[in-house]
Write a structure and sequence with these properties.
Elements (H helix, E strand, L loop, with lengths): L5 H10 L4 H24 L2 H17 L10 H20 L17 H20 L2 H12 L4 H8 L3 H22 L1
Helix pairs in contact: 1-2, 2-3, 2-4, 3-4, 5-8, 6-8, 7-8
Amino acid sequence: MTMPTDRDLILQTRRGDADSRAAFGELVTRYQTSVFNVCYRILHERGEAEDLAQETFIRAYDRIHTFDIEREFGPWIRRVAANLCLNAIEASKDTAELDDERDADSAQLPEAVYEVRERSETIRSALASLPAHYRVVVELRHFQELSYEEIAAELKIPLSDVKSHLFRARKILAEKLHASH
């Protein structure tokens, strides 16, 4: 038996029958990691990222009937997540410290663990210090691997703005990372 496509699962979810929740559950299973990663990279706080990842799927379920079935589900659900995160940042205007646990690998030597943790923290701090509109563009380009055109379409901004935001974000990051060494 072949795995149902995202399109099949969306259509099944839209039917609203007994199997619709199971179909949407499969979509959640397929995309929960990438949605959480978007939230975590934008918010830099594990608990809030988990909450907003969950909220992303609730919103997606409520709005599944508005989804354009000709588009891919992955970029759409990640964009919903990014929008929720941006709204949360705007609402709170507050960034939190990140959880260092994910950088530690018990198989590494203590010196290596320290160096990796320090380098990761420096990079995360530099990313966290970027304005939200730069962080989102960096997230979509470098972590979600969207093309410039896809980013422009998802954010509903001109292609020139995408290029400009990425250029400025990279410049700021380079300056901050260079200054820290």
